[in-house]
Amino acid sequence: MASEMTLQEQGDAAREFIAGLLEVLGMEATLGAKTLDEQTIEISANGEGLGTLVGPRGSTLSALQDLTRTAVQSRFSSRTDRIMVDVARYRERRAEALRRFTQEQAAQVLETGVEKPLEPMSAADRKVIHDAVNEIDGVVTRSEGEDAYRFVVISPE
Q1: Which stretches does DSSP call E strand in 38-81?
Q2: Domains in the chain and their CATH numbers?
């Protein structure tokens, strides 16, 4: 199980993979690691000109995260914990923008009393929406749809 390797060791392997990838791509970045909880580590790459690693709506970043997890898993025979990757603070900025958007949409739902379906989004984005709505009295959320078409609906309580 994952107890055979520490979260720190997994983070080190992830940083090493990303550093090698950046070198091959001719990109420079400062790499960091932050423990988010006992089973999750976030590896961050910050620097100039890293937008191509984020891609449209974070699609390239998502692929980079999957590749990083696969690279780490290939180095360890046991299960790995959760490894998140962020480039140029994209996830942080995206989460903040989603929280603001959610507050606006929730205010509309509270004002009109009409539920509001949002566009399909990733599981990570849906979680930000659900968490933001949990802090607002008078509205609730639910997810609907399947796979890439899964979306959040904000409803009056």
Answers
A1: 40-46
A2: 2-88 (3.30.300.20), 93-156 (3.30.1370.50)
